[in-house]
Amino acid sequence: MKFLFLTDTHIRTNSMRSRMDSIADTLETKLKEVNFLAKKYAVDAVLHGGDLFDRPDVTVMTVSRFAKILSELSCPLYAVAGNHDIYAHNPKTLPRTMLGLLDALGVLQLIPEEGIVLHGDCQVQLSAAPFRYDIDRGEREAYYVKRQNESIDYHILMVHGMLLKKPFIADISHTVIADLDELDADVVLAGHYHNGFETTFEKNTWFINPGSLLRTSNSTMDMERTPQVVILTLEKGKEINIELVPLVSAQKGDLVLSREVAKDNELRRENLERFKQLIREQVELERYDILNVLQELSKKEQVEQDVVDEALARLADLKETQDEED
Ligand SMILES: [Mn+2]
Predict the structure, then answer these.
(1) In the prediction, which pLDDT does 321 show?
(2) pLDDT per position as a tens digit, 183-218
(3) Distance between CA atoms of residues 186 and 163, nearest Å
(4) pLDDT tens digits, 8-57
(5) 30: closest CA among 215, 193, 196, 258?
């Protein structure tokens, strides 16, 4: 079977200060090229690694515009939820989001927790680890999804987590590939980390992150890289074939990303770092994101999981009301 994988499209209505183009127009062109590539490579399914939308409540106009393009795909579209698709990092809010709406309407299919099995020239299990606040903390259970049965030829796990090849800033929870024990997946398709990483094979699993389809920052990395998709070919008894296909419709970084704003951002980032440092010196809590504070406190005070879950649900509701007011 053949698959096309793309991730982090961040579909949104308004353009960003950091970009000089109309993001919606650019995204439309890119997604039409994805549709073209899906047909050209005759893939059995398109897989989306999360952050389809830039926020859970993208305008109806934008959702209509892009749902139409997505539904023109010549094959099924499977997706996993990213942090931008849901409210307050809580996958339970999915039914209230635009991604949830597209799933309900059958424009795409969110991969259920237990995974699904596709029957083509071989049997492929698709599993998903959607983003959740603790995906890269503790035992990292989300990465250890098992095969449903022994007749599965290939197991693909789509992950929307901070999966990286090298250790990252300690303040941001992340998972280093080499630190994972052997997984029960043949291929891990990762989103979330927009720069992507070089495809790697570790402990019998391929790890792939082609980078975000939309360049959302003005970093040197984003300036220099070309958004791309993955064509994955799985055949019984043959080696797994992975091809990275850069989009021809993607403009050069310096044509769409503003260098002026890049300098500005640099300055802001420095100021922010200084501010964070100050907080760190003043406050004992290591992390000050409300969800992190909640986690830290509940651990410290040994609060029961039921209570923590309820608090998280309430935070999600609150976040949703706030976002609506934005
Ligand atoms: Mn993203």
Answers:
(1) 63
(2) 999 999 999 999 999 999 999 999 999 999 999 887
(3) 16
(4) 999 998 877 777 778 899 999 999 999 999 999 999 999 999 999 999 99
(5) 215
Measured in Å, residue 48 CA sits from the centre of ligand 1 at: 12
Measured CA to CA, the distance from residue 228 to residue 250 in angstroms comes to 9
Calpha distance 317→300 (Å, rounded): 25
Contact 124, 5 (CB under 8 A): no
295 secondary structure, DSSP code: H
Nearest-angstrom CA–CA distance, 189 and 205? 10
Token output for 36: 């073209």
Confidence of residue 162 (pLDDT cuts 50, 70, 90): very high
With 0-12 / 13-18 / 19 or more C-beta atoms within 10 angstroms meaning exposed / middle / buried, residue 168 is middle
H or E element, residue 5: strand 2-6
pLDDT at 27: 95
Q: How much distance in Å is there from the Cα of 11 to the middle of ligand 1?
A: 10
CA of 83 to the centre of ligand 1 (A): 7
**Distance in Å, CA 120 to ligand 1 centroid:** 31
Domains of the chain in start order, with CATH, are 2-254 (3.60.21.10), 259-325 (no CATH)
**Residue 153 alpha carbon to ligand 1 centre in Å:** 30
Distance between alpha carbon 83 and the CA centroid of its chain, in Å? Answer: 7
